[in-house]
Amino acid sequence: MTAFDEKKTSPAPNPHSLDPENWGEFRQHAHHILDDMLEYLETLRKRPVWQPIPEIEQSLFFNPLPQLPEDILTVHETFMNHILPFGVGNAHPRFMGWIHGGGNPAGMIAEMLSAGLNANLGGRNQIPITVEQEVIRWMQHLFGFPDNSSGIFVTGTSIANLIGLWVARTATLGEKVRENGIEND
Q1: Residues 36, 75: contact at Cβ < 8 Å?
Q2: Between the chain's N and C termini, which has fewer beta carbons within 10 Å?
Q3: What is the CATH code of the structural domain delimited by 1-118?
Q4: Among the listed ranges 81-85, 105-109, 119-123, which one has the minimum average pLDDT value?
């Protein structure tokens, strides 16, 4: 029986929940995945900074939309063998390619915690907003900004630069520039 045939016989997902059917089994898989990622980061210095994607690897990702779910171990195996080796390389200590920072073990765990919390910081009374405000106050202190300064957290430097340009344009040309355009001001 092939892996494709096995997928055909997978049990139907629970239509009422996205929770794992067996939390204990899921927990074991999650620990295994975490261990593999920690092993990857621990041995990263022994690997090349980056490696090109062989055509055979790329060809694995031109498939029709799956009709059935895959178990977490199959997805993990695909990730470890066919995705992780061909990433951008920015987690490697010798990566000097772009301005985004290299990953590190504490950052990976922080991302896991953040993803598990799945906070939406758009408002309401929730502690992640208070944490964000505290970090902004720390930045005020660290960089000597005035107490009435503020800030926001964004997903990366591209959006940060875009916001910076927007703030500079608005500060220089005023709010009406949005309605009138740069040429008319």
Answers
A1: no
A2: N
A3: 3.90.1150.170
A4: 119-123
First CA to last CA across the chain, in angstroms?
70
Highest mean pLDDT among 6-15, 92-101, 136-145: 136-145
Which pair of structure tokens corresponds to residue 145?
């900004």
Give the Cα-Cα-Cα angle 104, 107, 112 (nearest 5 degrees): 130
Q: Is the full-model pTM beyond 0.85? A: no
Ordered DSSP codes for 114-171: HHHHT---SSSS-HHHHHHHHHHHHHHHHHT--TT------SSHHHHHHHHHHHHHHH
CB atoms < 10 A from the CB of 175, how many?
8
The encoded tokens of residue 75 equal 């997805």
The tokens describing 98, both together, are 């772009």
